[in-house]
Specification:
Length: about 50
Amino acid sequence: MALLLMTDIAEISMRQLLRALVPLQIPLIVTQVVITMWPDVVLVTPRMIR
């Protein structure tokens, strides 16, 4: 729904909007993969606090 509103407000096509959002999604996906595959990377700081 938000994407449809954004295309209407910006007066651009859905294709243009998605093409602009893809570069923003790549780091999020990479981060999620790193957190999923190697949870120790994220848990270093909490372990240091204890």
